[in-house]
Design brief:
With 199 residues, this protein is mainly α. It has two domains: 40 residues, Orthogonal Bundle (Arc Repressor Mutant, subunit A); 132 residues, Tetracycline Repressor, domain 2, CATH 1.10.357. It contains eleven helices and no strands. Helix 6 packs across helix 11. The longest helix is centred in the C-terminal third of the chain and has 19 residues. It is elongated. Keywords: DNA-binding, Membrane, Transcription, Transcription regulation, Transmembrane, Transmembrane helix. This is TetR family transcriptional regulator. One of its GO terms (molecular function) is transcription cis-regulatory region binding. InterPro entries: Homeodomain-like_sf, HTH-type_TetR-like_transc_reg, HTH_TetR.
């Protein structure tokens, strides 16, 4: 790319390139050179916008976590419609079928990145902790509507669902699990607590 040519939305262009590299090559393949090559820009472009590569990675992870807000809102809004198990299975498949699983691997792979993230995200792995909150909020909404048992421990069920889903989707080299497998997992965790009429 010629010097002096402005790149529109540089951060998003670099983040989108990081998505592709991370999904294709995994955490070990995610380097500043790989990101800028994928984005089609000079390596210096990344370093003009970020203090160093770990600063870029921390901003990338937090940006992808904040993008989960729309997904969380959509799941919360689905309370009372469809089925509890169907809504959860679809949400977990969408979450873990995205770059989320690869970001979890990235955060656990890079010590310096975990250190940077602790400055703004003091507990847990950002994608997973946000996902737990998303699922807990949805379960609480369904409990409030009477479609989940009144005694359901949503703060215990949510991390159980996230952990079980992560195990199903963790092998990024293999094909994603069949929808039926996700549905069965969700049923095994919450099926006994669902109070909606059978369909």
């Amino acid at each position: 790319m010629p010097t002096g040519v402005a790149i529109r939305d540089v951060r998003e262009q670099l983040f989108a390139a990081a998505d592709r590299v991370l999904l294709r090559d995994g955490p070990s393949g995610l380097t500043s050179r790989a990101v800028t090559a994928e984005a089609g820009c000079a390596k210096g472009v990344l370093h003009r916008h970020f203090a160093d590569f770990d600063d870029f990675l921390a901003a990338f992870v937090l940006d992808r976590v904040h993008r989960m807000d729309a997904q969380a809102a959509a799941l919360r809004d689905s309370a009372g419609s469809g089925t509890v198990i169907g809504n959860l299975a679809a949400a977990l498949s969408a979450l873990f079928g995205s770059v989320a699983v690869a970001i979890v691997a990235l955060v656990t792979f890079r010590d310096e990145l975990r250190g940077r993230l602790r400055d703004t995200w003091p507990a847990g792995v950002p994608v997973l902790t946000e996902a737990v909150t998303m699922i807990a909020d949805y379960l609480a909404a369904e409990r409030g509507l009477g479609r989940l048992a009144s005694g359901a421990d949503v703060d215990g069920l949510a991390p159980t669902l996230i952990g079980a889903a992560h195990l199903l989707f963790a092998d990024r080299r293999a094909a994603p699990p069949e929808p039926g497998a996700v549905h069965r997992m969700v049923t095994s965790v919450v099926g006994g607590l669902v109070r909606e009429p059978p369909r």
